[in-house]
Design a protein that fits this description.
Helix content of chain A: over 70%
Helix content of chain B: 55-70%
Structural class of chain B: mainly alpha
Order of helices and strands of chain A: HHEEHHHHHHHHHHHH
CATH architecture of the largest domain in chain A: Orthogonal Bundle
Strand content of chain B: under 5%
Radius of gyration of chain A: 28 Å
CATH topology of the largest domain in chain A: MetI-like fold
Oligomer: heterodimer
Strand content of chain A: under 5%
Shape of chain A: globular
Number of domains of chain B: 2
Distance between the termini of chain B: 37 Å
Number of helices of chain B: 14
Number of strands of chain B: 0
Radius of gyration of chain B: 24 Å
CATH superfamily of the largest domain in chain B: MetI-like
CATH class of the largest domain in chain B: Mainly Alpha
Structural class of chain A: mainly alpha
Shape of chain B: globular
Largest interface: A-B, 103 and 114 residues
Number of domains of chain A: 2
Number of helices of chain A: 14
CATH superfamily of the largest domain in chain A: MetI-like
Largest sheet of chain B: none
CATH architecture of the largest domain in chain B: Orthogonal Bundle
Largest sheet of chain A: 2 strands, antiparallel
CATH class of the largest domain in chain A: Mainly Alpha
Distance between the termini of chain A: 51 Å
Amino acid sequence: MATDLRPGRKGRRPAPPDGPPAARRTWRARLARLDVKGAPYAFISPFYLVFLIFGAFPLVYTLWVSLHDWGLASGEREWVGLDNYEYLLTDGDFWHATVNTLGIFALSTIPQLIIAMFLASQLNRTMRAPTLFRIGMVAPLITSTAAVAIVFAQLFDHDYGFVNWGLDLIGIGPIDWQVSRGWSWAAIATMVNWRWTGYNTLIFLAAMQAIPKDLYEAAAIDGASRIRQFWQITVPLLRPTIIFTVIISTIGGLQLFTEPVLFSVDTPNKMDGGALHQFQTITMYMFDNAFGDDRYGYGATVAWALFLMIIVFSLLNFLFIRRTGGAK
Amino acid sequence: MSMLLTRSAGAGKRPGRFRGLWNASPLTYLTLIAALLMSIFPIYWMIVVATRSNDVVSDVPPPVLPGGQVADNMGRLFDNPDAYFAKGLLNSFIASGCVTVSTVFFASLAGFAFAKLRFRGKNALLLTIIATMMIPVQMGIIPLYMIMVKLGWQNQLQAVIIPFLVTGFGVFMMRQYADQAVPDELIEAARVDGCTTFGIYWRVVLPALRPAAGVLGLFTFMQTWNEFMWPLAVLSPDNPTVQLSINNLANAYFKDYTLMFAGTTVAILPLLVVFIVFGRQIIGGIMEGAIKA
């Protein structure tokens, strides 16, 4: 059918120039050609317009801003070269926030992916009501982060929180989830885990369903236990998916913002992340510098440092997983 | 062939040692039910508190069933002078609606061009789209804010709409779908019938893209609805999105749990409705890799 039609379209183009109807035809043909040639560019241009103005330009401009002492309220704008970056390297608050971010990141990503993998292997069976389980598990994803952060902040409340009440039942004394550095990381990581485990479970499940089942049957005939099958068939074949989820989690985890901001209940400045900045993340530190302290130049420096960190960590994770996979 | 065999094994027909290999054991159900309860519990708890009065919340043991204080709490929520809750809701609906419609429209338009039209520089341009997906948008919020100041858009609703009218991710997703969902013959036929390129998009391509467009729309709506950092930077407390309204409440009324939770419940409600209606499509979207975290 396609081959029948194509010559027809081509044949229309060279219109013989004789008489007024033909002239109109040429004009039409020209318009049609313009349409064919120009339409694709017209169709993709809205994206590029939006992206150039609000995506690419800000990213590059961040670099420019970071080379200045720049205040919007004060009107200050002074070229300082690399001074901001030099300051960043010795800025204790920045490194403190970095350690917080990495700590929360580790506490959220690692258990999350392990649990997700386990749950996916459980879901990857013949069962009743599979859709119910899947829908239930991604329910956290559709809730709004800010709302859930508030609910969790209450659940982790020192005096009236559900968590401490539960711990009390099994004889563990009340934990001060807000004040202690480690416990606050754990509480925030719990929010992240709660939200994203189901999502990763479904991603893993989709990948597991793509693995041909006769591989497992063959392994079973050879006497491989289920656990061995999991490690020697499922995990290696899931490697691209694992890399995907790790990188997605890295990008999200290093930019963590909403959860710790709303977890903070006792401090007047929510960007502090607790009185001792015990759960202030890098993004909060950037936000506070720029929008709180009117230090847009230094805020931009922090943004670039974070951006580089995301790239480095994604690459490291990628290489690490490829290597450990290759060794098997 | 072997796939067919395993199919029937999955249905439990095949005798012998493979029977049960892919069947869920009671332990599996137990694990999954536990996971399900953990997933649902905070949402359920939120609704319980939102329907109670404050003196019950600190009860030991905690209340397990929703109470009858809904109207009272909702009244307090919408009357609260600091939250600007009604305005926040309206703003969120406007912003999420605009961004969703525009993203679906422009992304499917561009996705169609990339999948089905021939033009110079196509592959290079497609690569730049993929590259843009890697860039975390939040990293540019400082200059983005400066642009808004220049345009005089601080505290204007368009500041949370215009920069997000279309995303590289959306374009790429629609391109992938259009590539396999729209037959070339259909496009050629429409062209022979004298359709303009836009006419082809509107009459032939867009209807064919509807399933993917639906998923993209759902996720765009949810994402825009949930956006927190950028609205916090550019809008002020008296012209909030619903997430900022919650934040307003958290700043002043944190110990008033029923008020807070009434707020969070209302903020989640539209998403919950979307989820209940389109749950299957959302699951499908995630499993086909259609959404990015």
